[in-house]
Amino acid sequence: MFKRSRTAQGHTQIAALLAAAALVLASCSTVRPTAEEWQPTWDQALAAIPSESVVGENPSKAICDKTLASLRINRARLFPTPDLAIDDTVRDWVDIAEDAFFECPPRNERVGSFAQAYGLLRRFQNEIESVLEMDRAS
Q1: Which end of the chain has fewer surrounding CB within 10 Å, N or C?
Q2: What is the span of the domain harbouring residue 122?
Q3: 38-86 pLDDT, tens per residue?
C-alpha cells in the first residue's frame, strides 16, 4: 500500500474544504422568485391534482398517469421557491403526490391510501400558503 505524504493529504483536505465552500456559496446565490412570481407555478401544481372525489380510492390508470405526468412537469418549475422556509415542505408535497399517483392507489408505509395522501397534501398546502401570505405581508 502507498503512503501519501502529509503535503498530499493536506492538499486533499484543502480541496475538499474548497469544494464544500463552493457548494455553500452556490446554494446561497440562488435567485428566488417573489411570492407573486411563483404563485402561478404553485397554482398549476395544485391544479394538476384532481379532486379527492374524482380520484376516490381506486382511480383509473389514465387519471393517475395524467396526474403523475403533470406533477413531474411542474416539479422542476417549483424550485427555487420564494422562501427557504418552504423548500422542504414543497418537496414533501410533490413527493407525496408523486408517490400516491405512481402507485395508484398508494400502499406504502408513508402513505397508505389516497385519503391519507390528500390529508397530507392539504396540510402541506396550508403550511406553504401561510408562509406565502407572511412573505406578501412583509
Answers
A1: N
A2: 34-137
A3: 999 999 999 999 999 999 999 999 999 999 999 999 999 999 999 999 9
The verdict on 18 and 44 lying in the same domain is no
* Total count of domains within the chain: 2
pLDDT of 19 reads 57
Rounded distance between C-alpha atoms, residue 55 and residue 63, angstroms: 8
Q: What is the 3-state secondary structure of the chain?
A: CCCCCHHHHHHHHHHHHHHHHHHHHHHHCCCCCCHHHHHHHHHHHHHCCCCHHHHCCCCCHHHHHHHHHHHHHHHHHCCCCCCHHHHHHHHHHHHHHHHHHHHCCCCCCCCCCHHHHHHHHHHHHHHHHHHHHHHHHC
Q: Are 72 and 97 in contact (CB under 8 A)?
A: no
Residue from 62, 73, 125 nearest 96 by CA: 125
Confirm if 72 and 94 have CB atoms less than 8 A apart: no
